[in-house]
């Protein structure tokens, strides 16, 4: 569709896209915000979780890790008395949209195809068209949870348009490059920008100011309902889980940008990978010096060393795909300072043979195993309800001790994941190549 002007005469029907599944819950006005404020700072970067767009500093915004379920509404009724007002019903809840200027309309969302189909943004005819500096207010007859706002074609290549919101926002999706900039928790600026965002919380009213006149932009709206957000079922929501799928590969590395293990740091605050993961408690940033004003690590922002696409943060990548954890084999060091292999197990009678020098002759390994017809079998031990091997006294546990757990059917090693503060038995189920 060309970005030309389409007007509707007579009774104007504008599609403000809303919905909500919470019809009749007794929730308080947003001015009192009945949701418990997230005043903790889980990642220790100086921004409390309620204002932090990335609560675990893995570079993947919380809105992507825990998107919720989207709902959209159909047409609303334009007021025959005041062409600045439209009303409708959102899943049984009445609402009113008010603009400070007369409403315009187009036959759909400009450049609709840029929005990912997975979000289900409707392309209604008509859709709200804005060309002016406007104050826009949405009022709900009953409290609404997590309203969603969609903006298409904010500004242009030569016009920057800031939009200021009444409450802090979360970006769910935005066009790449510098076409959409997040200036603060309550402001974005577009230069031909497209964005899907939500305002977390429970509200009876929200508003936003469109601050610069332009050719046009489209507005459309919706809402989300929070869903269970714990992909691996370990009791830690994805937005606070350093390994959301418990595959042993950190989310920070499985995101869709070029983060290297050498760029990770020990996670701050209370963040962990969760029970069952063999990954270390590491992420991209653990202080206020390496994040932007919304709590997104600079490493994956536009211009950052790991950035792809010149945008804010990184996408999910394979962080919620347990089958996508990268595996690898590291070759032994065979040049330069070549090290002897100090330990070996053989069924070939090599050990102690004069002149054989086995296993030191096998260079660059930690351990050599050799056999032509025999498999290598570790001690097979059942484990009790406390997570310890039956028949081995805790006093005899030694870091690095390895057995096969016949109760849980996995190879286990006695080690630490917090630099020696605590020790435990952990399954070795995913092969990785840690550099730290």
Q: Structural class, judged by helices and strands?
A: mainly beta
* Strand ordering within the main sheet: 2-3-4-7-14-9-12-11
Give the N-to-C terminal Cα separation.
53 Å
Q: In which range does the helix fraction lie?
A: under 10%
What is the C-alpha radius of gyration, as a whole number of Å? 28 Å
Structure in a nutshell:
This protein has helices at about 60-65, 250-255; strands at about 70, 75-80, 85-90, 95-100, 105, 125-130, 135-145, 145-155, 160-165, 170-175, 180-185, 185-190, 195-200, 200-210, 215-225, 265, 280-285, 345, 365-370, 380, 400-405, 410-415, 425-430. By secondary structure, the protein is mainly β.
3D architecture notes:
This protein has 436 residues and is mostly beta strands. The protein has two helices and 23 strands. The chain has helices at 62-65, 251-254, and strands spanning 69-72, 77-78, 85-90, 93-99, 104-106, 127-130, 134-145, 147-154, 161-165, 170-174, 180-184, 187-190, 193-198, 202-210, 217-225, 265-266, 282-283, 343-346, 367-370, 380-381, 402-405, 410-415, 424-428. The chain is elongated, with a radius of gyration of 28 Å. It starts with 61 loop residues before the first helix and ends in an 8-residue tail after the last strand.
């Amino acid at each position: 569709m060309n970005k030309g002007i389409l007007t509707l005469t007579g009774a104007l029907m504008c599609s403000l896209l809303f919905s909500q599944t919470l019809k009749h819950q007794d929730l308080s006005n947003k001015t009192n915000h009945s949701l418990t404020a997230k005043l903790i700072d889980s990642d220790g970067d100086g921004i409390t979780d309620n204002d932090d767009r990335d609560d675990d500093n893995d570079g993947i915004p919380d809105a992507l890790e825990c998107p919720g379920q989207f709902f959209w509404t159909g047409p609303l009724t334009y007021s025959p008395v005041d062409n600045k007002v439209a009303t409708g019903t959102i899943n049984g809840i009445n609402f009113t949209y008010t603009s400070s200027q007369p409403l315009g309309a187009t036959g759909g969302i400009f450049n609709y195809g840029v929005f990912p189909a997975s979000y289900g943004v409707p392309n209604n005819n008509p859709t709200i068209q804005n060309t002016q500096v406007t104050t826009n207010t949405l009022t709900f007859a009953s409290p609404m949870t997590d309203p969603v706002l969609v903006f298409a074609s904010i500004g242009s290549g030569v016009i920057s348009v800031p939009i200021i919101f009444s409450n802090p926002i979360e970006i769910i999706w935005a066009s790449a490059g510098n076409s959409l900039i997040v200036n603060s928790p309550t402001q974005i600026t577009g230069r031909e920008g497209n964005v899907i965002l939500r305002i977390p919380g429970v509200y009876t009213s929200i508003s936003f100011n469109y601050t610069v006149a332009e050719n046009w932009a489209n507005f459309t709206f919706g809402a989300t309902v929070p869903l269970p957000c714990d992909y691996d079922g370990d009791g830690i929501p994805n937005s606070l889980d350093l390994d959301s799928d418990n595959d042993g590969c950190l989310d920070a590395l499985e995101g869709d940008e070029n983060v290297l293990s050498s760029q990770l740091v020990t996670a701050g605050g209370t963040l962990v990978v969760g029970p069952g993961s063999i990954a270390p408690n590491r992420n991209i940033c653990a202080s206020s010096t390496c994040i932007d004003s919304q709590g997104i690590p600079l490493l994956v922002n536009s211009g950052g060393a790991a950035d792809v696409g010149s945008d804010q943060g990184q996408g999910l990548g394979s962080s919620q795909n347990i089958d996508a954890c990268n595996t690898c084999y590291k070759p032994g060091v065979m040049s330069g300072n070549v090290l002897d292999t100090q330990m070996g197990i053989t069924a070939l009678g090599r050990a102690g043979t004069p002149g054989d020098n086995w296993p030191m002759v096998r260079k660059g390994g930690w351990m050599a195993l050799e056999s032509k017809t025999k498999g290598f079998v570790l001690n097979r031990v059942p484990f009790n309800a406390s997570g310890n091997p039956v028949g081995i006294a805790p006093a005899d546990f030694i870091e690095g001790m390895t057995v096969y757990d016949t109760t849980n059917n996995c190879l286990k090693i006695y080690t630490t994941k917090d630099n020696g503060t605590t020790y435990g038995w952990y399954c070795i189920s995913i092969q990785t190549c840690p550099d730290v």
